[in-house]
Amino acid sequence: MKPDTECFVVIFTSTRTEGDNGYAEASERMMQLVADQPGLLGIDSIRGADGVGITISYWESEAAILAWREHPEHRVIQARGRAEWYSAFHTRVCRVEREYRFGQ
Which residues form the ABM domain (predicted)? Predict the structure, then answer.
């Protein structure tokens, strides 16, 4: 689900390391966990064959984003990501002021 109104987004771009090393299971768990977070409006995510990925999450407020960032289980996975799964990542938090669509 994508928002039709003003909201906040977190843009997470990353480059994966070689091998799975438990990444798929952890990623699935994070998607389950974030789906229950108050203020989440939706998520778009894609990863290329070269290991570069982008995940964009849409939120009602900055407070909701901060609550997710500090969630205890999410914090554990963040640390594991730095240690094992990502060779690089970049996180941006932005405000969406308007949106244009074509088609669906």
Answer: 9-79
